[in-house]
Amino acid sequence: MTRTLILTRHAKSSWDHPGLPDHDRPLNKRGRASASAIGDWLRRKGYRPDEVLSSSSERTRETWLRMGLSARNIRFLPELYHASPDQIRQALSSATGQTVLLLGHNPGIAEFAERIAQSAPEHPRFLDYPTCATTVLQFDMADWSRIGWHDGQVIEFVTPRALLE
């Protein structure tokens, strides 16, 4: 059985309120446009999550909202806020959906993407994973509890800049 993972870093956040705790920062104008563009791209490509695992931060919540997608199961997890690759893999192992969208933060999400992929796509921005970068990976496994490093085949990688230019 094939499983699909949509791995997205949150969109560009605002620094307009310097006293605001990092966890509570919203998206800026560019971030809102980027999240919408990624959502449109996912719909056009037919990548529709049935489950979402997201950091509990304001910017990941807003990224999900601005993507304009729907899912039957959405979980905002505090443990995904600035999570390490191992913490991300642990959270993903509890997923039950066929297609899971995981929203997180750098540097963990970039490191996770690199470690979970069988091989990195030939894209100059994959390893630094800019804001709202999205990778679609497929896994040949029955359930997410069996996910291991280098198990995912990269199907697509996109950055919002490529969609908005």
UniProtKB/TrEMBL annotation:
Transmembrane segments: none
Alphabetical list of CDD domains matching this protein: HP_PGM_like
Protein name (record): Histidine phosphatase superfamily (Branch 1)
Species: Ruegeria arenilitoris
